[in-house]
Specification:
This protein has 440 residues and is α/β, with parallel strands linked by helices. α2 packs across α17, α10 packs across α15 and α15 crosses α16.
Length: 440
């Protein structure tokens, strides 16, 4: 429905009507160094959205320090969690945990079919008026030059804040998976930075113009994929030089999503002893109880080709010195593996966005997908006997590998400063799109 359901009074604002006026507006924004603020906004639902936001902030800071033309030296870059501004306090970790238990199939259906057909979500002030008035007040006070969002809640709150305050800052949306959820504010987004051409194919039937799409990849931390001395890194971590190092990425900020993953690894562990040319490195993160459990399992199974590490400060170098990862199919996890040139075995049933990630990676031959201990053992034995399969996955991964995504996103966001026209206010806006390019 293109007609707004609710239209409040619009504040008077000057709208640039010509390219010359837009240019002058941009020049004026850049000259106001004392008030040049870029907001990078995420939602603390899991860790991936925040990790992507951190990578973008880091890229912006680097550009500022290096004297990039589009960002003043005195610019401020702020990292914000949109949930901190909610009318109702929301625990993002508990919310994320709801998607890992018995509700997973329900979440999967919701993610795949809500506003992904012909009825589409355009944007509006609804979220801001109902939930995020504090964020609107913050935007009114800070008057950002640009807002970059790595989560749909942040994007919709930014759209509402821009409408309600009458400002003209660009809104850049950065999905952190390999497909696009239906709740992104399609009509009000000034630039979608997506991971693949397939995601652009999803946006086209939603009537997002080509000028508002850019295939940048998913942003990851600096140093991921940088050249390194593999032998020196292995020596430092006391890992064998003559074996394939397999990272078992079994720990994260939230332990709940890894319950089934860890159970499957426990069942597969006895078979690891027979894979003499592989060395397994378990990463339990900061979960000391799980680390103690792994030590006991290692002792019981008599595994000499197994190392258990605590929290690792420099994951990029450890990944770069490894040959294979066993991991979940979270967007940031698999992207870091791609950038580190690390083939993957994706373990576990996947739902929602993780299902889209799994389909993308397996369809391109970038990784293998297994759901049970028996399948995992079979895949590992195949890779143990056929190292050329690892090399094939490595070559195939180059099609998705974009380690400079954060910098590309930062530069493109800055290039939009001062070029966006004010939009009419509406509470909600739905509209009709074309036939979806991909069936979900």
């Amino acid at each position: 429905m293109s007609e707004p359901v609710f239209t409040p009074d619009v504040k008077t604002t000057s709208i640039p009507s010509t390219s010359a006026e837009i240019g002058r507006s941009r020049e004026h924004a850049l000259k106001r160094e004392e008030s040049f603020v870029v907001l990078v906004v995420h939602a603390s639902v899991g860790s991936g959205h925040r990790s992507a936001a951190l990578a973008i902030r880091e890229a912006l800071e680097t550009l500022r320090r290096n004297g990039h033309a589009d960002i003043p030296h005195a610019a401020e870059i702020e990292l914000l969690d949109i949930l901190d501004f909610g009318r109702i306090s929301i625990d993002g970790d508990k919310t994320a945990s709801m998607f890992t238990g018995p509700t997973r199939p329900i979440y999967d259906i919701t993610w795949r079919y809500t506003l992904t057909g012909r009825l589409l979500w355009g944007g509006g002030t609804a979220w801001s008026r109902v939930m995020f008035g504090k964020f609107t007040d913050y935007v009114e006070r800070r008057r950002p030059a640009a807002v970059i969002c790595t989560h749909i809640t942040a994007a919709n709150a930014a759209v509402g804040a821009r409408m309600l305050t009458g400002q003209r800052f660009p809104i850049v949306c950065v999905p952190t998976d390999y497909e696009i959820e239906g709740w992104w504010p399609h009509k009000e987004t000034d630039l979608f930075c997506v991971a693949t051409e397939a995601m652009a194919e999803t946006l086209r039937p939603r009537k997002v113009p080509e000028s508002k799409m850019s295939i940048t990849g998913i942003p990851v931390r600096a140093g991921m994929g940088a050249p390194c001395d593999r032998a020196a890194i292995r020596k430092r971590y006391e890992l064998p030089q003559d074996k394939a190092v397999v990272l078992v990425m079994a720990g994260a900020h939230l332990p709940q999503p890894y319950v089934r993953f860890r159970e499957t690894m426990d069942k597969a562990m006895p078979a690891m002893k027979s894979m003499a040319d592989m060395h397994f490195v378990f990463l339990p993160g900061r979960d000391e109880a799980y680390a103690a459990h792994l030590e006991e399992e290692k002792r019981l199974c008599g595994l000499t080709n197994m190392t258990i590490m605590g929290y690792v400060d420099d994951m990029p170098e450890l990944m770069a010195a490894s040959d294979l990862a066993i991991c979940k199919s979270g967007g940031l996890t698999v992207t870091e593996c791609l950038c580190a040139r690390l083939p993957m075995v994706l373990l576990g049933q996947s739902y929602g966005q993780e299902k889209a990630n799994t389909r993308m990676l397996t369809s391109l031959g970038v990784g293998m997908h297994v759901t049970t201990a028996r399948e995992l053992i079979g895949a590992l034995r195949h890779l143990h006997a056929n190292p050329s399969s690892l090399r094939a996955m490595l070559v195939n991964g180059e099609i998705l590998r974009r380690p400079d995504a954060a910098t590309d996103i930062a530069k493109q966001a800055l290039a939009l400063v001062g070029s966006v026209e004010a939009s009419d206010k509406h509470f909600v806006e739905f509209y009709w799109g074309e036939k979806p390019a991909h069936t979900r």
